[in-house]
Amino acid sequence: MERYQVILTYDGTDFHGSQFQAETRTVQGVLEAALRKLKWTGKSVLFAGRTDAGVHATGQVAAFDLEWNHSLVNLRNALNSLLPKDISVLRLFLRNPDFHPRYDATSRTYKYRIFCDEVRNPILERYTWQVWPKPDAHRLDEAAALYIGVHDFAGYGRPSRDEDSTIRQVTSMFWTVHGSHMTVRITANAFLYHMVRRLVYAQVRVGQGMLDCQELSQHLYNPGEEPLKGLAPAKGLTLVCVKYPIDIGESD
Q1: How far is 104 from 48, CA to CA, in rounded Å?
Q2: Is 59 in the same domain as 115?
Q3: Considering Cα of 88, then 93, then 97, then 98, what sign does the dihedral take?
Q4: Residue 102 domain-assigned (yes or no)
Q5: Is 210 in contact with 87 (CB distance < 8 Å)?
Q6: What pLDDT digit, counting tens, does each position of 148-197 carry?
Q7: Nearest-angstrom CA–CA distance, 217 and 116
Q8: Domain for residue 238, yes or no?
């Protein structure tokens, strides 16, 4: 019996999130169903973190124990032949028996994609949030800079358990602009529930002149207040990388 680490990519549109739910289609559910066909007898696959319904991934990490007497490539191919078309195993690694994809992670990175136009684009809207008017890039950069460092993000999300801390360290957050396309890339040691989508929503509104940075600071430095209102749609969000002390690389 060996512990395997897998890097998953999936289109989250038709998944009700990553975490198993008995009567809905989830990433964990379809992965475990495929593993059972390979004689997996475990109770639950371990994940690096939860993604909401509609959120995508190019670098989700999961782990499981399996008796497998063939190569890693054969295991990858066997799983992909059993998985539906909107999810795939990119790579596999052998890990120590005590490896945990969530608790051993040192950082997570998300990307959020925005398309700026007043006319709807059916091709782009599956994976981007369409906004109009176009946010000002300098205002976006000013808002993003507020969040770098260690802060109490209670005004931007909630932990998976009430007793857990809401303090997180954001190590990097920056926007890139290519014409009508805007992308923000955010790296932190961990994220609260809805934290990334709320951060994106707030920055976009600052960029559009509907909020100012002082209002964002109030929610950041007065964490006892009500959470900041507004949430960017799930479809623009992608988990791109989870890092570990032994670097596994990323798929972007």
Answers
A1: 9
A2: no
A3: negative
A4: no
A5: no
A6: 999 999 888 888 777 789 999 999 999 999 999 999 999 999 999 999 99
A7: 26
A8: yes
Q: How many structural domains compose the chain?
A: 2
Active-site position among 11, 52, 152, 247? 52
52 among known catalytic residues: yes
Please give the model's pTM, rounded to 2 decimal places: 0.93
Assign 84 a pLDDT band (cuts: 50, 70, 90): very high
The tens digit of pLDDT for each residue in 37-61 reads: 999 999 999 999 999 999 999 999 9
161 and 80 in a common domain: no
Provide the residue range defining the domain that includes 32. 2-95
My answer on whether 41 and 126 are in the same domain is: no
Query: Among residues 64, 95, 126, which one ends one of the domains?
Result: 95
* Sequential DSSP letters for the chain: -EEEEEEEEE-GGG-S-SS--TTS--HHHHHHHHHHTTT---S--EES----TT-EEEEEEEEEEE---S-HHHHHHHHHHHS-TTEEEEEEEEE-TT--TTTT--EEEEEEEEEE-SS--TTTTTTSEEESSPPPHHHHHHHHHTT-EEEE-TTT-B-SSTTS--EEEEEEEEEEEETTEEEEEEEES---BTHHHHHHHHHHHHHTTSS-HHHHHHHHH-TTSPPPS----GGGEEEEEEE-SS------
